[in-house]
Amino acid sequence: MRSIWNGAISFGLVSIPIKLVNATESHTISFRQIHTEDGGRIRYRKVCELDDQEVASGEIGKAYEDADGSMIPITDEDLSRLPIPTARTIEIVAFVPGDRIDPLQMGSAYYLAAAGAPAAKPYTLLREALKRSDRVAIAKFALRGRERLGMLRVVGDAIAMHGLLWPDEVRAPEGVAPDADVTVRDKELDLADALMDTLGEIDLDDLHDEYREALEEVIAAKSAGEAPPESPEPAGHGKVLDLMAALESSVRAARESRGEGEGEGGGDGAEGGGASGKGAGGDAAGREDAEVRALPRREASSRATPKRTGGKKTASAAKGTAAGKSSASSAKKSTARSSGSRSGSASGSGSGKRTAAKGSGGRATAGGGSGKGTAGTTAKKTSSRKRTA
C-alpha cells in the first residue's frame, strides 16, 4: 500500500519511524456530468472573478475571507512557520481505556507501518504494550496543514490510528430527543426484547452493498446495449393500529424469515389477544401508508400477559365431556362449536357474576393466545360455585 505520510511515533524518549497508509477504501461508483443533448463532458474551470480569465493551478493561492468579505492572503511560508511540534511526529500524550473514546469522535482510519528494519523492535514493543494494557493511545499529529487528534489501537499484528474530532467539534444532542412525555409499558419492552433476540447477531462480513451491485448490473447492461434489469417492486407496509401490533408483527416476520415459525400463531401473541396474531396487526398487513402510533395510556388491563406457546394449542375447545364438567368447560365447548376457532381477544366483565346459562353454555372468554388469560381466571371463579342447572 502506498504511504500518504512519513514520520515517527514519539513514545516518551522512544522514536519509531513509520509510514501512514489508508486503512479503508471507497467502492462508491462515481459519475461524470454530461450535456444531455450531445453527451459531451461538462468540466469546471477556475476563473478569476475580477478579470474573468481562466487561471492555472500554479497561479492559485490561499486566503482567509474576513467578516467584511475582504481576502487575507496566506502563503505556504506563513503556514510553515506555525509552531506545530507534530509536523512530522505522532506524539503520544496519554493512554486511556478504549471505552473512554466517544464513537462520534472517530473519523478516518490509517495503518501505521514500520519504516525499515530499525523500527521493527520499538514498533513491536508499542504494539505488545497496548495489547497487554488493554488500552488505546491518544496522540497528536499534523496532516494536510492542520494539527489533528488520533487514537492508536492494535488491529491484528499492526497498529492502526483513527483520526478523532476535537471534543469541541462534537455537538451536544440538544433538541434531538422527543419532547413529549412518553411512557413505555413492560409488554412493549418485552416484545422489543423478543424482536432483538429473534434478529440475533450477524457476521458483518456477510453484509454487502446491494445498491452498488445493482448499479453495476445496470451499467453492464447498458454498455452491452441491453435493457437494464427491472428491480422488483418493494413490499408494501401495512398501516398498523398501534405499537404493540407493529412489534408483534415484526417478531413473527423475523421468525418466519429465519425458519422459526411458531405454528399458527407465529409469535409471542399467538393467534388471539388484543392487537396480536390474526387481530389488528394481521388485518393491517394489506393497508397502505405505513404509520405506527402509540396506544393511549390505560390504567389497567384485564388481559393476561401473552406467553409463548410454541405453536401448540393450550386449550382445546373440542374436548367437551359430560354435564358434570364446570361451566367454564361448557362455555369453551359452546364457543368452539359456534365460532370454529379460538377467540381473538374477547374480554370478560370481571364482575364475578359470570355463571353458565341454563342449557346454553353461556359465554366464554379467551385469553390472548396463550390459554392462560381470562378464560383460565373465569374457570377458577365458576368452578368453585355450584352449578345452576
Question: How would you sum up this structure, described in words?
Answer:
With 389 residues, the chain is of the alpha+beta class. Helix content is 23%, strand content 18%. It has a 7-stranded mixed beta barrel with strand order 1-2-6-9-8-7-5. It has a two-stranded antiparallel ribbon with strand order 3-4. Strand 7 and strand 8 (146-155) form a beta hairpin. 21% of the residues are buried. Residues 262-293 and 298-389 have low confidence and may be disordered.
Percent strand: 15-25%
Distance between the termini: 91 Å
Poorly predicted ranges? 262-293, 298-389
Give the oligomeric state of the chains in this entry, treating copies of one chain as homo and distinct chains as hetero.
single chain
Q: In what order do the strands lie side by side in the largest sheet?
A: 1-2-6-9-8-7-5
Order of SSEs, N→C? EEEEHEEHEEEHHHHHH
Broad structural category? alpha+beta
The count of helical stretches stands at 8
**Mean pLDDT figure:** 72
Kindly provide the radius of gyration, computed on alpha-carbon positions and rounded to a whole number of angstroms.
34 Å
The major beta sheet can be summarized as: 7 strands, mixed, barrel
- Total DSSP E strands: 9
Helix content: 10-25%
| Form type | extended
